[in-house]
Write a structure and sequence with these properties.
about 300 residues; two-stranded antiparallel ribbon; 9 helices
C-alpha cells in the first residue's frame, strides 16, 4: 500500500475553499479511497463558496460522487447499458470522471466525453489514454461529432438543469449520434408522483435553485419517459431510488470512510460552505416524498415520431 502525505492548508476568513485543486482516486477497487494529488484546476476555482454552483461546491469539498442516486444507481445504469469491447461510447458532461472510470473498466472500443467546462475536461483527460479515448470541450446539444458514431451514449445529472427546449435538443443529439439500435442512458432527478400539482413542482424548482445556485427543472417519470419517446427512444430500463445524496450513510457508501471523513473535515473548515451544504440537504429532506433519483436506458428507434 502506498503511503500518501496530505498537506492541509489553514482556512482563512475569505470563504475560498483552498488546498483542494484535485484529489484523484488511485486505480483499482482496493485503492478506491487512496488519493493522489493533481495540479489540474477544478471548475469554480475563482468563485467563493457562497457563489459556487452546488455540484462544484461539493466537488471542491472532496465529494467525488455527485449523481442524485449515488454510485449504486450509476453502476446500475452502466450495467444496463451493457458496454462491451465492440462499443463506441460517448458521455455527456462527465464531470469529475467517476462514471468514465466505470465505463472504461468495461474496455469499450472507444470513449469520447463531451464537457463544456475546460477545467473539468482537463481533469477527465488525465484518466484517458490512447487515441481511442478523448475528452472534447463542447456542449451536449451540439457536439459536432459525426452522425451514427456511437453505440452507447449516456449522461447523468445534467438534463435536470436544462430548460425544456434544451432537454429536447440534448436527447435529440443523443439520437443523432447513435447507430440504429444504440443505447442511451440517463441518471437524473425526478418528481413524484406523476400527478404532482404544478404549484408543487414550481415550489420545488424554486427552492432547489435557491439552494444549489443553478436552475434545476426535474420532471415526473411520465414526463421524462415522454421526452425520450418523443425523440425516438424506446425505454427499456426504469429504476428509481430515494434522493439521499447528502445523507451521512450515503456519503460513506459513495465515498468510502476516508472520503467521507475528508468531506466532513473540509465542511468543518469552511463556515460558508457548511451553510450551503446544510441548506441543500434541508431542501432534499423537505421534499423527500416528492423527489427521487432514476435511471432510464432507451434504445434508438429507426424514426423519430412526427
Amino acid at each position: 500500500m502506498q503511503l500518501i502525505t496530505v498537506k492541509i492548508e489553514k482556512p482563512d476568513d475569505t470563504n475560498f475553499i483552498r488546498g483542494q485543486t484535485l484529489w484523484r482516486h488511485d486505480d483499482g477497487d482496493e485503492g478506491r479511497d487512496l488519493m493522489t494529488r493533481s495540479q489540474t484546476p477544478m471548475p469554480g476555482d475563482e468563485l467563493k463558496a457562497e457563489k459556487m454552483p452546488g455540484h462544484w461546491l461539493l466537488a471542491r469539498l472532496g465529494k467525488r460522487v455527485l449523481r442524485p442516486g449515488g454510485r449504486q444507481m450509476t453502476v446500475q445504469m452502466i450495467e444496463a447499458l451493457n458496454i462491451g469491447a465492440s462499443d463506441a461510447v460517448i458521455e455527456f458532461a462527465p464531470g469529475l470522471g467517476e462514471t468514465a472510470r466505470l465505463a472504461l473498466g468495461r474496455e469499450p472500443a472507444s470513449y469520447t466525453a463531451v464537457e463544456r467546462d475546460k477545467d473539468a475536461a482537463a481533469m477527465v483527460q488525465e484518466i484517458l489514454s490512447g487515441s481511442a479515448q478523448r475528452c472534447v470541450v463542447g456542449v451536449a446539444e451540439e457536439t459536432g461529432l459525426p452522425d451514427a458514431s456511437a453505440t452507447v451514449v449516456y449522461g447523468e445529472a445534467m438534463l435536470s438543469m436544462q430548460t425544456p427546449q434544451q432537454k429536447s435538443r440534448i436527447v435529440r443529439e443523443a439520437h443523432r449520434l447513435l447507430r440504429p439500435g444504440g443505447r442511451y442512458g440517463i441518471h437524473e432527478l425526478c418528481l413524484i408522483p406523476d400527478d404532482l400539482a404544478d404549484s408543487a413542482k414550481l415550489e420545488i424548482q424554486n427552492d432547489l435553485a435557491n439552494a444549489i445556485h443553478h436552475g434545476t427543472r426535474p420532471l415526473t417519470i411520465a414526463e421524462w419517459q415522454g421526452l425520450l419517446v418523443a425523440e425516438g427512444f424506446l425505454v427499456q430500463t426504469n429504476a428509481q431510488a430515494p434522493m439521499h445524496l447528502l445523507e451521512p450513510w450515503r456519503i460513506i457508501q459513495d465515498e468510502g470512510m476516508f472520503g467521507a471523513l475528508r468531506f466532513a473535515f473540509n465542511l468543518l473548515c469552511n463556515r460558508e460552505a457548511r451553510r450551503r451544504v446544510l441548506a441543500m440537504r434541508q431542501v432534499f429532506r423537505k421534499y423527500r416524498d416528492n423527489m427521487a433519483a432514476f435511471v432510464f436506458v432507451g434504445q434508438k428507434k429507426e424514426k423519430v415520431p412526427q
